[in-house]
Specification:
Strand content: 25-35%
Largest sheet: 14 strands, mixed
CATH class of the largest domain: Alpha Beta
Radius of gyration: 24 Å
Number of domains: 3
Order of helices and strands: EHHEEEEHEEHHEHHEEEEHEHEHH
Number of strands: 14
Oligomer: single chain
Number of helices: 11
Helix content: 25-40%
Distance between the termini: 25 Å
CATH superfamily of the largest domain: Gcn5-related N-acetyltransferase (GNAT)
Length: 355
């Protein structure tokens, strides 16, 4: 196999076509995170977005969209905002990421939402987790029957919330596709405050994240778009969600709600209404994102396995071991045998391999 690092703009028309073909034919790659449109949007707001192209006999067989910093460390496109990452390739492709790093003289690949279906590509996975999903492939009624089988309390909570709204003579309005920029600002400001209160950070202080949100809000393509949904009570915005979708998968990303309406659980209501409407659009599932919060467990009827770890350049590790041993010998010349020294020297001279 051959490996090459290029910018997004350097992808040829043939490679773009191959990317889309591979994504559509491999169900584990249906997430909008793997859409060319998403990668291109991030490349517009960040200057470190690269594509590692994997080729065999001059044909492109795989693409790893990523960010590569000046220290030659590889991370997923969009960094901490990425809820799915992996290699765009056929299901039967076999790629070893550590070998790829060595060939390209990259230090390491850090990941925390790597596809479990591509576990064979990895050598240093620390842990696995799941991203709960709302599987709508058989329709909304089948989805509700799945919830009953797992004894989810979701339906009873939804009925209770709507009864309370009716008792209080409230009017409600749900919009799956809002185009109001003020609604987007509500999401950003509410999420900002939530991050500050819980983590003490404000991700929206970074221009590229603001820029990405604005570009996602504007893009409307046949197989990719940013989606803003709203749920209003008595004409006021009670809950909203901003995410993205393609023709197969909707990704639940940035949900918020107004705490003054919390007695009606608008956060649950907007997701329930979204699931009901989305089920009419021939969508496979809604990816709720890796998290152990209770409402996601309550809504989900399936899950996707995700992996976390660090893949390393084996040559970098071996060279580091050699340097450390050589340094130790310099400082402790009387405590190491000539046989060991000879092995260290042979090891370095034979292309950094253990002998």
């Amino acid at each position: 196999m051959q490996y090459e690092i290029i910018s997004f703009g350097e992808l040829s028309s043939e490679q773009l076509e191959q990317w889309e073909k591979l994504q559509h034919s491999n169900p584990s790659l249906w997430s909008p995170y793997f859409n060319l449109e998403f990668i291109e949007l991030v490349a517009h707001v960040r200057n470190d977005v690269k594509i590692i192209v994997v080729s065999k006999q001059s044909a492109s067989i795989g693409f790893l969209p990523c960010q590569i910093n000046t220290s030659r460390i590889v991370r997923p496109v969009a960094g901490a905002l990425s809820d799915n990452h992996g290699i765009i390739c056929a299901q039967d492709t076999n790629i070893t990421i550590s070998k790829m790093l060595s060939e390209l003289r990259l230090k390491r690949f850090e990941y925390n939402h790597f596809l479990g279906s591509q576990k064979s590509f990895l050598l240093n996975t620390f842990m696995s987790d799941v991203s709960p999903i709302i599987d709508l492939s058989r329709g909304f009624e089948y989805y509700l029957s799945d919830l009953k089988k797992k004894k989810s309390k979701l339906e009873s909570k939804i009925r209770k919330a709507y009864r309370r709204l009716e008792q209080d003579s409230c009017t409600i309005e749900f919009n799956l596709f809002s185009t109001d920029k003020k609604d987007l600002e509500f999401v950003i400001k509410t999420k900002q405050q939530q991050f500050l209160n819980t983590l003490g950070i404000d991700p929206f202080q970074h221009d590229w994240i603001r820029g990405l949100f604005n570009k996602l809000f504007e893009i409307k393509k046949d197989n990719f778009e940013g989606v803003l949904s709203t749920f209003k009570i008595n004409g006021q915005l009670a809950a909203a969600h901003f995410g993205m979708k393609n023709n197969k998968v909707w990704h639940w990303w940035f949900p918020v709600y107004d705490r003054s309406f919390q007695q009606y659980t608008p956060g649950l209501l907007i997701l329930f209404e979204m699931a009901k409407k989305i089920s009419e659009l021939d969508v496979a599932y809604i990816d709720l994102g890796k998290d152990k919060v209770q409402y996601k467990r309550m809504f989900s009827n399936n899950h996707i396995v995700l992996l976390e770890g660090i893949e390393v350049n084996q040559d970098e590790i071996i060279q580091s071991v050699y340097s450390a041993l050589a340094s130790w010998y310099i400082n402790n010349p009387d405590n190491i045998s000539s046989r060991v020294i000879n092995k260290i020297v042979r090891f370095n001279n034979k292309g950094n391999r253990f002998l």
